[in-house]
Design a protein that fits this description.
This protein has 402 residues and is of the alpha/beta class. It contains 17 helices and 14 strands. The structure holds pyridoxal-5'-phosphate.
Amino acid sequence: MQNKLKKKQNAGRFGEYGGQYIPETLMHEIEKLIKAYEHYKNDPVFKNELNDLLHKYANRPSLLYYAKRMTKDLGGAQIYFKREDLNHTGSHKINNVLGQILLAKKMNKTRVIAETGAGQHGVATATVAALMDMECEIFMGKIDTERQALNVYRMRLLGAKVHAVSTGTGTLKDAVNAAMQEWASRTEDTHYVIGSVMGPHPFPTMVRDFQACISAEMKEQIIKETGKLPDAVVACVGGGSNAIGAFYHFIGDENVRLIGCEAAGKGIDTTQHAATLECGTTGIFHGMKSVFLQNKDGQINEVYSISAGLDYPGIGPEHAELAATKRAEYVGITDDEAVAAFEYLAHEEGIIAAIESCHAVAYVKKLAPQMTKEQIIICNLSGRGDKDVAAIARYRGEKLYD
Ligand SMILES: *Cc1c(COP(=O)(O)O)cnc(C)c1O
């Protein structure tokens, strides 16, 4: 009995982080999900179906692109971009959503729910729900539904119902709470598609596995192109799913530096940022033990970033452990630096990348000149930036009709 309890408490741990901190009402469903995932992840039919969707629907493998002009301009390491921005729906999020909804189908679910902040994960979920003929309901903070009206309409167009959540601050963390509650009250036909490497076990592991195709492809592509491994892999970090996807197959390669870029917003010496690993402390929230931006009573802080996708007050538990063991490094990038990188990448390489991804690009701009011309950096471009163009114009004081 003691052993069984201990085993349960150790399920899905990354060092001291992770685990399952959930209401009793969800335990049974979470156990069914673990069982189903453990089965299907090794099932050749499931793997084939998922690979087929990734290839024919989502456009994988994504390209690895050598940024010749940027490399020359910065005068140091060779810079490569992993082009997740070219995936269907415009970011890495589709990788995870295809995996989870295919799994939900196998579990005979007919309905999916999801939380969303800026709407990117909501749109990806609504897209795949349409493709797979699933009922779909999206929980979004009320403030966010107003800020992201276009994405709300997009989700409706795709057949989803969008709930505006007005509890708390009416933002992402409240949308997660609402989705979790909805799931606890209706598990028979419903799967909760969590959008990043967070929440109770098995989500941080399962979502990481679905995103790990990024580093599996990167490794094959860079070896084919250059004959060696990269010296550094750089990615932006919100909850941490594109970063862990980009890091995963390099974790065992000790000479590859893994660098996560958090949103330092208006500066980590202000209260307006989302730099969790630089400024946060260990706590329990949203079903997991991890690092959070919180006050000393465990009250979760309001966070801020110009990029809505990095605007989360916590981080996935595997990143908390990679930071604690110093296997990965985490740095803060301010709004100003990210916006400058957004413009720089557009000019220099003709790529308009998501403002989230531009946090990683901004760090590459600092890092490359400190490295030699023989060294290689791969930067994960997690998404495309069409959605950000109007906001960047506003940031620069230009008036646009959008
Ligand atoms: C959602 C999003 C992110 C942040 O989420 P992670 O789980 O940290 O990857 C980053 N980039 C883009 C383009 C996104 O849409």
